[in-house]
Amino acid sequence: MQWIIRAIDSINEWVGRILCWLLIPLVCITAYEVFMRYVMKQPTIWAWDLNIMIFAAITFLGGGYALLTKGHVTVDVFTLNLAPKKRAILDIVTSSVFFFGLTVLMIKGFDIFMMSYSVKETFPTIWAPPYYPMKFLLPLGCFLLLLQGISELLKNVTIVLGKNNGKTGV
Question: N or C, where is the chain less crowded by C-beta within 10 Å?
Fold first, then answer.
């Protein structure tokens, strides 16, 4: 079980490290567009679309990394004073809602991607790049988040079984 946890965690750690580097082209493209638009008076036809694609990649694919690093907002008012074992049991019970909702979103997202791919959908802009690669980011991001959810579930199971004393690392 430990190797599964480490493998999933390392996948999302790797994805997160790559995604953080996408902020550099995002900033550079924005700065270039601002310069071209306001200084040169010649706006580009591609900068806005490309920024949307990059930001979508960061947003959709970063969910698993955010879960790994405890970056999601949690309301822990009720669980703050619980013992690690009780908190793990509560997390195991409530994870069914997480897995159900995420699975539905992943399946529906894949359906949307397939529809977009079948008609070769493009952005409704002058540049008109393909839209379907960006739509694939939703089911892919859901898959990465689902994997990380499995890792977190396994971490909670190890806590309940007494193989871990409640530390975040396994």
Answer: N
CA 68 to chain centroid, in Å, comes to 10
What's the CA gap between 89 and 80, in Å, rounded?
14
Q: For residue 80, what is the DSSP state? A: T
pLDDT tens by residue, 53-96: 999 999 999 999 999 999 998 888 888 899 999 999 999 999 99
Rounded-to-integer distance, Cα 116 and Cα 10, Å? 31
Any alpha helices (H) in the chain, and if so which ranges? Answer: 2-21, 23-34, 47-61, 63-68, 84-118, 132-160
Specify the pTM. 0.90
CA-CA-CA-CA torsion sign (35, 36, 38, 40): positive
